[in-house]
Here is the input.
Amino acid sequence: MGRDIAINVTREETRVAVLDNNQVTEVYVDRAKHKDFVGNVYKGKVMKVLPGMQATFIDIGMDKSAFMHVSDLAVDTEPGETLVDTDDDDKGPDMPRPRRQVSKPIEALLQEGQELMVQISKGPIGTKGPRVTTYVSLPGRYLVFMPNVEHIGVSRRIPKDEERARLKEIMKRIRHPGHGYIVRTVSEGVKEEELRSDVEFLTVLWQEVMKKRDQLAAPNLLHTDLSLAFRVVRDLFTTKVERLWVDSREEYEAIKDFVRRFLPEQASRVHYYDKEESLFDHLGIEMEISRAINRKVWLKSGGHIVVDHTEAMSVIDVNTGRFVGKKDQEETILKNNLEAAKEIAYQIKLRGIGGIIIIDFIDME
Here is the structure.
C-alpha cells in the first residue's frame, strides 16, 4: 500500500484528502463562500504605518485591511542571500515565505498612501484580516519562483548530495539574473529541459503580473493561484502517488487533460469514482474528518484529548477519561500521555494547526 489522493467536489466546496497506507494524513478544504486567498497577489495601498509595532495596514480591496510586519517588506538584497527554509517547499499547496532582518524602521520605508504589490501569506481569521508580504513567490511544478530574492535553493528533501548539486548547476545555467528559485522535491531526476520550461513559464507569468500592476489602480487583484484541486495535482501528485480519485466528472476531465499535458507518464493513475457510496465514505475519510472536526478526540485506551482554538493560539488538553490502568497511577498517566502525544501529532497535521500551540499533558512525577 502506498499513497492515494481523493478529491471530492460539490457545488459548495472542494475537499482533498491524502492517504498514506490507507490512513488520512492531510486534508484540504476550499469552500465557495470562504475562499482560500493565500497566494493571491494584490496591488495595495498603505493605510496606516505603526512605528510602535513596526508594522503597517494595507488596503487590498477586502473587507478587512491586510497586516504586514517590517520583516515582510522586501528591500535590496545581497546576491545569493538565503532568506528561505528550503525544507518546506512541498508539504502541501502552501509555499515558503522569505523573510529578513531589516535595518531601517518601517516609518523610514513606507508612508501612508504609498502603493505596493503584496501577496497573502496567511488568510483572515476571526476578526483579523489577512497577513501579507512583499516577497512574492510563484509556484510551478518543479520550481518556486521568487522575483525579489537573488537565491537558488534545492529542497533538503532530495537526499542525495550529487542530485542536489546537479540540480543547482542546472539552475545556475538557466536562471534569469536578479531572480531566485527553489528547486522542489518533485524535481528529483528531471531533465534540464523540464526545469527550463518551468523557468520560462514562471517568467511569463511574472511579466503578466507586472503588466497588471502597471495598468490597474490600487487596491486591485493581480493574480490568483490555481484552484485547490489543481494545486494538489501540481504540488502533491508525484510518482509516489498510486491513485488519484475524483468524484466529479467535470473536474475529472479537466484534471485528466491537465495531467496528460504536463505529467503524461502519470495519466493512467487518475481515476473517476462513480459508485453510489460517496468517495470519502468508501475510503474511510469521512470518519477521520469527523474526528478532526470534533472538539474531543477519544484515544484507544479510553482517555481523550480536547482541542480548542482562539485567535491567539491553539490549546490541547489531555485527560485520562475512562482509562484507569491495570497497575499504579503513574503507569496509567505515562501510557495515556504517550498515546496522547502520538495522536496530537497526527491531529495537528490533519487539522492544519499552526502558530502557538499549548499542550497540557497530565502531570507526572
User: Anything to note?
Assistant: The CA atoms of residues 21 and 149 lie 39 Å apart. The longest strand covers residues 41-50.
